[in-house]
UniProtKB/TrEMBL annotation:
Wadjet protein JetD C-terminal domain span: 215-391
Organism field: Desulfosarcina ovata subsp. ovata
UniProt-recorded name of the protein: Wadjet protein JetD C-terminal domain-containing protein
Pfam families noted in UniProt: DUF3322, JetD_C
UniProt keyword Transmembrane present: yes
Domain of life the protein comes from: Bacteria
Keywords: Membrane, Transmembrane, Transmembrane helix
Domain DUF3322 as annotated: residue spans: 5-189
Transmembrane segment boundaries: 12-33
Keyword flag Ribonucleoprotein: no
Amino acid sequence: MITQAQLRKKALVPWNSGAFLAGCITGASLFPLEVRFRTPAGREILEKFDQVRAWIQTLVGHSAASGHGGYTIVWQTIRHRSLGEQQIPRQILFETSDGWLAYVEKQAECNTFLELVDQTQSVLPGLLAYLADAPLKALGHAAAWPQILTVCRWFRDHPRPTRYIRQLDIPGVDTKFIEAHKALLMDLLPRILPPQGLDATISGMSKHGFERKFGLYYDPPLVRLRLLDPALVSAGFADLTVPLADLARNDMGARNVFITENKINGLAFPPVAGALVIFGLGYGVDMLPEIPWLANRKIFYWGDIDTHGFAILSQIRRHLPQVQSILMDRRTLLDHRPLWGNESAVKRHTGRLTHLTSEEAALYEDLINNCLGTNLRLEQERIRFSALLEALSPID
């Protein structure tokens, strides 16, 4: 026997799914709305007669017939040899949206949504489809909706503005508002901008996705490098931190490029003829393929001998297949046994890596399977500096 709490939960389904609010735009009607439930059978009525009678009284007491609710009861007749004919509720029927809204207590929210529809129709009717697709999400932004529409209209009138968000002069809207609503704007703007007003290949927010998608400037990723050959040094600067885009446009003239994770290793990296070292990127190495001149250089990666070190190596090699690893071999690991450490068990990388050599892959498998020790790792700063000099000696 359905309780009032269960009935309300069932009645709320069209609201929680957004179907009712979407229908306010599309014209699709859900009414009359039926709510079905299990009715007590004859034996149950006999055994629980008082409970069934109280249940019926509660349903009737909250129905439209009693002036308290928005539903009507559809009855069915049950004939029982001991009880005779009995009228039992078979289903609940909400005949109108007004009655249903009153019962589920959503009148105020519905009115707010209708105000959003009116505002959108007046300012940017092209966004009505969004209200139909994601009505509850839009309703969650009701207080900010006028400003949201203002921002969307500004971008429609000024596609790909090539400015920082801080430079946008939009009446009634400040920088922090746009920053706080990027995710919503990411959904809305593609619905009203022309194809040339956005980059359709960008779908996520990571790596300044909003700015890149809609033609805005952003704080560029920086690359730190050291020129290891005095012949490559220009204007006296050997240690440089430069925007990625600038590095991509300017070939540094090095024939050998070393990539190392640890900052102090990058700073202490010894002189090498015709070489530079890039350091401190971590998984940010995935931006290196944006530097076109790296494609025809010798590249060497030196990372930790642990699961993440090999994951980063595989990541680089996916785009720059010529990458060679240094000091990430089994001999180096075994030669430094007293300096072994441990990775955090919950942070280890254990996925399949597809861009390792057979020797690298074998060592990686031994690490993830704990063949040499539990969660074993050898951090690069623990490796003897003389081992680095030895590894670099054959490189010209």
